[in-house]
Design a protein that fits this description.
The complex is a heterodimer of chains A (about 280) and B (about 290). Chain A has about 280 residues and is α/β, with parallel strands linked by helices. Helix content of chain A is about 35%, strand content about 20%. In chain A, strands 1, 2, 3, 4, 5, 6, 7, 8, 9 and 10 form a ten-stranded mixed sheet that branches. In chain A, helix 2 links the parallel strand 1 and strand 2. The radius of gyration of chain A is 21 Å and the shape is elongated. Chain A starts with a helix and ends with a strand. With about 290 residues, chain B is mainly α. Chain B has 13 helices and two strands. A two-stranded antiparallel ribbon of chain B has the order 1-2. In chain B, a hairpin with an 8-residue loop joins strand 1 and strand 2. The two termini of chain B are about 30 Å apart. Classes of the chains: A alpha/beta (about 280), B mainly alpha (about 290).
Chain lengths: ~280, ~290
């Protein structure tokens, strides 16, 4: 049994691109099934579930990964109180949270998109906030053509909405929307059919679709171009990190899972959920 | 049973075996429905008990996991569901009845067969295809008249197309089931084709036609994907056909994956409400069907 485990662990480590030795960890008991509790940010939860499924498959029933949503603050609290093995936190850690160990899983970047035929090339932060809160209603007020602005907003609860409103210091209640969309792809399609629309979607989706010929333009922020590269290296301002947090230096299954999840083999899942893999 | 007499003699147990097997399958199928209803009721209980009428009276829909922080006014969404459903039924019913009458009484046989085939094809188009067409073609067209294009009008048009086959096919079979003697009698009395249809056939098929409309309405109410893609989904009571609306189904599809605690429970409550309403509609349709 332990020989098989040895083999699997080696495989994982190889897949992770680091040919380290097997962790001779007493916490991983061969043949005994255990559960890994992960709680926190609803942004990370879908990704955590997907990675969790793969992790379970790799270890064929010896580990169960249990993912529960409850917000980043719950992720912090549960990790601290050891209620959960791993907490999910979809922001950078605050100063009073440095007692926790954190591991960057991916980055989440959001950018403004316009139709490719819209003459507007850039918008200041105040202008974006003004547009979305209904203070600016015509494109000619921000250097565009004389036409009413169509505001494309995200549905309640979406992480993109959270990133967007936090960045521009507005509340979801203030936004005066003309169209509310669900996923990023629907946002891109909507803006690509309406010349006077403005929306925001994840950078990964926007760049992919624009490169595939969809008529949209990605607006930069504060002079920084919106692209997967600027999100990955952390220079794009409207972005945040998605972190795992643990109480102590992780051991056993926890450590295996964190290494597994941050390995390049999981980047396809990260991209599938419209996040940007971290550079490591 | 007479036809199966020989089977019966040689294998006396078969009938009982098949019977109990079928009974088991029937129980499984019907208990599944009950299971779903009780699950919905269980999941909606937190919202019903702690929000109660706030789900209708709150001024806006900005739900959050805690009752004190969010507002849970679903009334505009209920209105959205009603106007999309009502609008689609109002458009699809005359269209469906007229096309059924055409196929039944006016079209030459081969045209009628082709026409019915086309309508059945319409029934087979997946909802997401309607949605995509609405999003990429219909909504931009409407936006040229009055932005933003994704609107009540777009939703009504799309849903009308989707329920038209239901209305037409049910109406068609209702028209067919009007006794031919009555039609022949009317013709013998010297009534013209239109008069026969107007005064004999349609009154005779009335229950069936209404059943078709009610079944269409349940389908319209339950439609999710296409509506989500073309309606604009803004939570506000629409003031005109060019305003965006959000339906209960779209609301659930948009937010369920991201909802916690009370927000989640409120979404389940809207699901329960939808289920109860469509059960009522189906019961109405059945009652009318029995009457005829």
């Amino acid at each position: 049994m332990s020989k098989r485990l040895h083999g699997i662990v080696c495989l994982i480590l190889l897949a992770a691109g680091c040919g380290r030795e097997l962790p001779s960890d007493p916490n991983i008991m061969p043949g005994l099934s255990s559960t890994l509790e992960i709680t926190g940010s609803s942004t990370i939860a879908p990704l955590a579930s997907e990675i969790g499924k793969r992790f379970e498959d790799e270890h064929r029933g010896r580990i169960r990964v249990n993912v529960q949503m409850g917000g980043s603050s719950r992720g912090i609290a549960d990790a601290r109180s050891a209620m959960a093995d791993i907490g999910m936190v979809s922001r950078d850690l605050n100063l009073d949270e440095t007692d926790l160990k954190h591991f960057e899983l991916a980055r989440d970047g959001v950018c403004i998109i316009l139709h490719a035929d819209n003459p507007v090339r850039e918008l200041s932060r105040e202008q974006v906030a003004g547009l979305f809160t209904g203070k600016i209603r015509n494109w000619n007020e921000v250097g565009g053509s004389d036409a009413d602005v169509i505001i494309v907003n995200k549905a309640e609860g979406r992480s993109t909405l959270e990133v967007f409103t936090e960045f521009f210091r507005i509340t979801p209640q203030q936004i005066v929307a003309d169209i509310v969309i669900g996923d990023n792809e629907q946002g891109v399609k909507t803006v690509s059919t309406l010349v006077h629309a403005i929306g925001y979607v994840s950078v990964g989706t926007a760049q992919y679709d624009r490169d595939a010929g969809v008529p949209i333009r990605l607006l930069g922020i504060d002079g920084v171009e919106a692209s997967v590269a600027t999100v990955a290296d952390g220079t794009f301002p409207m972005s945040r990190t998605l972190n795992w947090v643990t109480k102590d230096e992780p051991t056993g299954w926890t450590r295996l899972f964190i290494e597994f999840s941050t390995s390049p083999a999981q980047h396809d899942l990260v991209r599938e959920l419209a996040f940007v893999p971290s550079e490591s | 049973m007479i036809w199966f007499g020989s089977w019966h003699l040689f294998r006396p147990n078969l009938d009982a075996q098949v019977g109990s097997g079928l009974r088991l399958a029937a129980i499984a199928a019907s208990s599944l429905v009950l299971l779903i209803v009780s699950f919905l009721a269980h999941e909606s209980w937190p919202a019903i008990s702690s929000l109660g009428s706030r789900m209708v009276t709150d001024a806006s829909w900005h739900p959050s996991a805690k009752a004190s922080e969010g507002t849970f006014g679903m009334w505009p969404i209920v209105v959205g569901t009603l106007v999309v459903t009502g609008g689609a039924v109002m458009l699809a019913s005359p269209l469906g009845v007229v096309s059924a009458v055409f196929a039944e009484f006016y079209a030459p046989p081969h045209v009628a067969v082709m026409f019915r085939g086309l309508i059945e094809l319409l029934a087979g188009i997946p909802s997401v295809v309607f949605g995509l067409w609405g999003l990429m073609v219909l909504a931009p067209l409407i936006a040229r008249v009055s932005p933003p294009g994704q609107s009540l009008l777009a939703g009504v048009v799309i849903v009308t197309l989707m329920i038209l086959p239901t209305v037409m096919l049910v109406t068609g079979s209702a028209l067919e089931s009007v006794p031919r003697e009555r039609v022949r009698g009317a013709v013998a009395l010297g009534m013209g084709r239109f008069a026969v249809i107007r005064h004999v056939v349609i009154p005779g098929a009335r229950a069936g036609i209404v059943t078709g409309m009610l079944l269409g309405a349940t389908r319209a109410m339950g439609e999710t994907m296409a509506v989500l893609m073309v309606c604009g989904n803004v939570v506000k009571i629409p003031r005109g056909v060019f305003d965006p609306v959000r339906t209960l189904t779209a609301n659930m599809a948009l937010e369920m994956g991201y909802a916690l605690d009370l927000h989640r429970s409120a979404l389940y409550t809207s699901g329960l409400a939808l289920l109860v309403t469509s059960m009522g509609l189906v019961a109405c349709a059945q009652w009318l069907g029995r009457e005829s």
